[in-house]
Specification:
alpha/beta
Length: 283
Amino acid sequence: MTEGMPKRKIKDSVFTNLFQDRKYLLQLYKTLHPEDCNVTEEEIADVTIKHVLVDADYNDLGFSVGNRLMILIESQSTWTLNIIIRALMYLIQTYHDYFKRTNQNLYGSKKVNMPIPELYMIFTGERKNIPDTISLSKEFFDEAKIAIDAEVKVLYQENEKDIIGQYIIFSKVYNEQRKLYGKTKQAVTETIRICKDRNVLKEYLESKEQEVVDIMMTLFDDEQILKAYAKDIDDNATHREAKKMAEKLIRKGKMSLDEIADCVPALTFDELKKLEAEVLQLT
C-alpha cells in the first residue's frame, strides 16, 4: 500500500456539499456582502478547482459574482498560516482558468479584465487570540514590502443567524460529539439531531440527512486509510534502515547472524540469511 498505493478519488465534505447548492451559496455571499441586496443566484458561478485525483491541488470553494468578484474560501479545523500560500496558489489557478474561459489574451497588448479577489478562511477549531486577517507579508516576511502579497480574512464567530456562523456551530458540535462517541455513526447522528434542534443548518440537514451521514462516515474511512498509509511509510523506512545496518554488520564479519538478529529486531532471521547470501555473493 506504500509506493504502489492507488490515487484516491476526492471525497465530498459537508462544507463542499452544502455550498454546491446555489441557494446556500447565495446565503454565504450575502453574509460576506450584506450590502449587495440585489444579487441573484444566476450571477453566482461555482469556480472551485476540481481535480479527479487527490494528489493534485484543489480548493474547498471558489465562486465568482458576475465579473466583479472572485471569492475563494477554505475551511480549516486546524490552525495553519500555510493557508495563505495555498490560497494564493488557488487564486492564481482560478485566474488562469478565468482568462481561458473568457478568451482573454495575457500576451496581448490589451489589458485584461479580472474580478477583484477575496480570500477567506473559515476556522472551526479552538485557538486563543484568533486574528481577523492574516497576510503573506506579515506572517512570512516580517511585514516587509514584497512583490506580491495576499491577505486572508479569518471567519470564526459562531452565529445562528447566518450560514457561515451556523456551519461553524455545526463543526464544533460535531467535534464535541466525536469526543464523546468516537468516529461512529452515533457521533454523526447526534450532531445532526442537536443542530436541527438548535435550528442550525436545519433545512439542509433535513433534506440531505442520509447524504450527510454517508459523507461523514466516508470521511472516517478516509482517515483510517491515510493513517494506515502513513504507518506503512514509517514501517518501510524503518525496514530500510535496519537492512542497511544489518548489511554493515555482516560485511564486518565480527558477529554471528544470531547476534545481528538481536541488534536488528526489525528483520526476520530468514531476511538476515538472505541478506548474508547476497553480501557474500558480492564479496
